[in-house]
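Project standup — Tuesday

K.O.: blocked on the structure for the chain from last sprint. Re-posting the sequence here as requested.
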Amino acid sequence: MTEIVVSEFMEQAAVARLCVEFDVLYEPKLVDTPEQLRRSVGTASALIVRNRTAVDADLLAAAPRLEVVGRLGVGVDNIDLETCKQRNIGVLPATGANATAVAEYVIAGALMLLRGAYFASAAVAGGQWPRERLLGREVTGKTIGLVGFGTISREVARRAGALGMEATAYDPYVDPADTAWRSLGVTQSSLDELIARADIVSLHVPLNAETRNLIDAKRFAAMKANAALINSGRGGLVDESALAAALYDGQIGAAMLDVFATEPLASNSVLAGVPNLIMTPHIAGITVESNRRVSDVTVENVIQYLRARR
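H.V.: unblocked you, prediction finished:
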C-alpha cells in the first residue's frame, strides 16, 4: 500500500531515505498524468510536490488518508491551503533551502541585463560587430529594489552589497525595527518610491489577490527608462501584456522572467519574440546543490510529521 507519493523530481538519495521507512511511489512524470495521480494518492499519507502539481480540492478529495503535503520549494500557491486546513493536513515548504540558488540567479540577471551585451550572440555569429550599440552599464553604484524582504530577498541584498550596489526594499509585513534592515544596509521604501528609484526591480512576494499583476502598465510607466525587471518569485505578479508593451516601446530597458502566469508558456504567448527579454523555465531555485538541500529538508519534514502523528 503506497504511503508516500512523490509526483515530481527529487534527489535520489532522499527518495531512498523515504523508502527505508515507508512504501513510496516515486514517479517524476506523475504530474503530467492527472488521472493516474488521482488514483495513486488514494492510500497515501503524504504527497510530495514541486510547483507544477495542482494540489487542489479535486486531488485532495481523491486522497482521504492524506496527512501532509511536502513542498520541494517555498511557494505554496499551487496548494489549496484552505482545504488542507479544514482537513488538518500539514503543508510543509522547504523554507530557505533554495535561497542561495535564487539569489545567485537574481544577481546574474542584474549583471546580464544592465550589461546588455549578452543579447548579442546571434549578431556576432552572423558576422556583425555591434560594439558601440552594446555599451552596457555596471551594477556598481546602482540601486536594486527588492519587492518583498524575506529570506531570499535578504540573500540578494547581501550579494548586491558585495558588488557595490545599494539596496532598498518594500515589505509592509516586515517590522521596521527588524535588525536585518540595518545589518544588510537596506533602506525601507514604499512600493511607489522603489519603482521610481530602482535600476533593477526584483520580485520576491507570494502570489495572492493583493499581488496579482502587481507590476502593471502604470508601474512600468513609473520606472526609469533603462530599468530592468527580474521576476523569480511567482508567475502572475507581472502583467505580461504590459511588460511586452513596455519592452517594445522602450519604456524600460530589459527584463528576465523565470515564472509565468501559465506554465509551461504557450507557444503563442504575448512574450514570444519580445526584445531585451530573457526567459527561463522556472529554474531559478534549482541547482544541483539546492535540489539536494530542498530534497533533504522536505524528506526530513515529512518523516518527522508522520512519525509525530503515529
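K.O.: great, moving the ticket to review. Residues 71 and 93 are 4 Å apart (CA to CA). The chain has two domains: 4-97+288-309, 99-279.
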